[in-house]
Amino acid sequence: MINIGLAGCGYWGPNLLRNFSICPNCKVKAVADIDDKNLKYVTDKYPKIITTNSYKELLKSGIDAVVLATPARTHFSLAKEALLRNKHVLVEKPLAMSVKEGKALINLADKRGLCLMAGHTFEYNAAVRELKKQLDSGAAGKPYYFYSQRLNFGIVREDINALWNLAPHDISILIYLIGKMPLNVSCKGYAFIQEKIEDVVFMSLTFPDNIAAHIQVSWLDPNKVRRLTVVGSEKMIVYDDVADSKIQIFDKGIKRRNIKDSLGAYDDFGKYQLIKHAGDVIFPQINFAEPLKEECQEFVDSIFEKRKPLTDGENGLRVVKVLEAAQKSIEKNGKSVSIPGTRT
């Protein structure tokens, strides 16, 4: 039995608490939060769980692993302290606020033989995995470009901007789908509500094989949008997380066909012909389970099996590398910034 300690039970913490409470082979033993109202919620709903305002007391409560659902800027210091006390750690996104911090956590976890996991929930999403399956099978043909929108109205953060708050999900999904790191990023951010805290961010990424990707995140939009579109030479695929049919495959594509052999050589536009085709829309059947439940189970299983989880520290570091480069681009008014490789 893995004894879990949860740090932070505000916005996302209750969801983690609910899922770990029903997860086999583990027990939520203690919860820490600085807000007494959050602890009262825990006591009322889970009276057997120890509650405390002190993170240090949480680490002393006989737990084997820590789950961090605290503000992003606390992730590094709290994760480091837990690892130094030989606790396995699951960190909600982002893993850290810099590449330097992310590398330090990975090296510390490896040195002590501990599990370090990043909470990239969408990599456990059955719809995202179906999209990955479609792309890997070549069903869409050659991917031309991806564009993602993660928009909402409300929950304006004061500690981090929309880039660090919302974009980790989309970056994680894109790297997972494409299977490669982007080469560079150009990013523009706009701070409308709070000075120097961007509410709206537009990001452009260049991946190998001339694949382009665009991400828009905002907490000032009138509608809740969680949509990713893939445009390929053979088909186009839409993943809509808020729709009933989460994956829609459009049998539409545009590709170039060399017509030299049939019509002779041309020196202008006629050398190539753009071929368009359109067909049905397909809605694949998806056996959907709550992604967060899958994530929590993966954390417990990886500890038991003494292996790295699917979204391990390296996975988290890849996303942080993109975020750090994107932040630099914002500070340079959108200038393209190269993204380093993934070695630690």
List the helices and strands in order: EHEHEHEHEHEHEHEEEEEEHEHHE
Radius of gyration, in angstroms, nearest whole number? 22 Å
Number of strands: 15
CATH architecture title of the largest domain: 2-Layer Sandwich
| CATH topology call of the largest domain | Dihydrodipicolinate Reductase, domain 2
In the predicted model, the low-confidence regions spanning at least 5 consecutive residues are 268-272
Protein model, in words:
By secondary structure, this protein is of the alpha/beta class. It folds into two domains: 2-120 and 291-307, Rossmann fold; 123-290 and 323-338, Dihydrodipicolinate Reductase, domain 2. The protein is built from ten helices and 15 strands. The strands form two sheets. The chain has a nine-stranded mixed β-sheet with strand order 14-13-12-11-7-10-9-8-15. The chain has a six-stranded parallel β-sheet with strand order 3-2-1-4-5-6, with helices on both faces. Strand 1 (2-7), helix 1 (13-21) and strand 2 form a beta-alpha-beta unit. Helix 1 (13-21) packs across helix 9 (291-304), helix 5 (99-112) runs antiparallel to helix 10 and helix 6 (126-136) packs across helix 7 (162-178). The longest helix has 19 residues, at 313-331. The two termini are 32 Å apart. 43% of the residues are buried. Residues 268-272 have low confidence and may be disordered.
Distinctive features:
six-stranded parallel beta sheet; nine-stranded mixed beta sheet; 344 residues; Rossmann fold; alpha/beta; Dihydrodipicolinate Reductase, domain 2
